[in-house]
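Re: the pair you flagged

First of the two:
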Amino acid sequence: MKLIIAEKPIAAKRIAEILSNKKAKKLKKYNVEYYCYDDWYVVPLKGHILDVAFPDNLSSWIETDLEELIFSDLIYREEKKNI
C-alpha cells in the first residue's frame, strides 16, 4: 500500500486523478472522503480544528496598543466538531 496525505480535499482529488488517469474511486470513512486506485490511497487533511481570535474589545488593531494585543488572552472556538 502507498499512502499520500494531501494538504486539503481538492488537492487529494487532483493527485488521485493524475496518478490513476482519472480512474480512482472516491470512498468515505469516518466522515472523510479519500481516493483509492490499485494500492494507492490519497487522504486529505481536514483543515483547522480551532479558530483563534482576540477579544472583541481588541478587534480594532489600529486603535489597540500593540503591547495589549501581545499580552491579551486569546479566544479559542471549535471550528470542526467531527474530526
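Second of the two:
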Amino acid sequence: ANVRYLILPRNGSNLYRLYGTLLGMNVNKAAQYNIQDWLDSTSPDFKPEISEAIFYYREHATKEERLQVCISTKEMDEAAWKYAHHSQFMLDGTFGISSSKLLLFIALATDEDRKGVPLALFLFSVPSDNRATHAGYDTKIIVEMLESWKLHLTRSKEKDFQPFVAVTDTDTKERGALCQVWPDILLLLCKVHVQHCWTNRKK
C-alpha cells in the first residue's frame, strides 16, 4: 500500500511491448503481419474470435495499398439493427491513434438510457507517402468501408440496413461518403463541432 511508481516517458514503449506480449502478440513484427497471422486459419497464431469480429480486411501488401480492418462483433451487429436501422447513428474519425499512422472511424448509436453504443470500427493506414495522418483519407475509402458494413449487416438479416439520420462533424469527406452509401439519409451536424468551428472562425 505504500508503494509509488514513477513512470518516465521512455517507459511507455516498454509497458506497451510487455502488455502486447502478455496478449500473445509478437511485438517484434509489424502490425499487419500479426493481423495476417490472426486471420489465417492455417497459422499457429490463428485467433477465431478475432476472425469472427472482422467483416472486412485488406492487407498492406504493397506500397500503394493500405491496411484496412473493419470490426464488428455479433453484439455490435445486433445493436446496429436495434438502435440505428430506421433511426440515427453518429460517425466520427480519430487520427494518429498509434505511431503507425493509423486512422480510426467509429460508428456509434445511443441506447434507451442515452448511453453510447459502438456499432462498428473502421481502422486503416495512411498511404505510404503521406506525411500528415489527418490527410490520409478521402471520400472513396470511407465509402468502401461503409459499403462493406452495410453489406455485412444486410447479409446477416437478409434485408437492407437503412439508417435514416447520421450525425457528423463538419468533414465533407465523411458526409459525402454517407450520401453515396445511403442516398436518402438525412445528415445533421454535431453541435459541439459546430460551436468549435464558429469559435475558431471568430478568432
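The longest strand covers residues 116-125.

-B.
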